[in-house]
Amino acid sequence: MKMHLTTAAAGLLLLTGIGAAAAQDVIIQPEQETVIREYVHKQPLASVEVPGVKLSVGGVLPDTVELHEVPNVKYRYVVVDNQTVIVDPGTRKIVQVLQ
User: Fold this and answer.
1) What residue ranges do the domains of the chain occupy?
2) Is the pLDDT of residue 14 over 80?
3) Which of 75, 66, 92, 67 is nearest to 37 (CA)?
């Protein structure tokens, strides 16, 4: 019985970890990415500096950084250190850095 509980507990922890990791991965659909890229190209922004923020997926931008809307898209964008970043406005997490 103890063996079954240990196995079940390990399995539950594994599934919980997978679920948490999957929840952190945001995948922007190709159609949305195209819309975002076209909009950003037509609406260029001045680059801002945000000291201490790592410009990578999962990085969080402070409330002092103004996020700009892309019509009909959930995400916002801003140009930081000459790189366009796509941000989830609810969490302010960077979901993609456009190349």
Assistant:
1) 27-97
2) no
3) 75
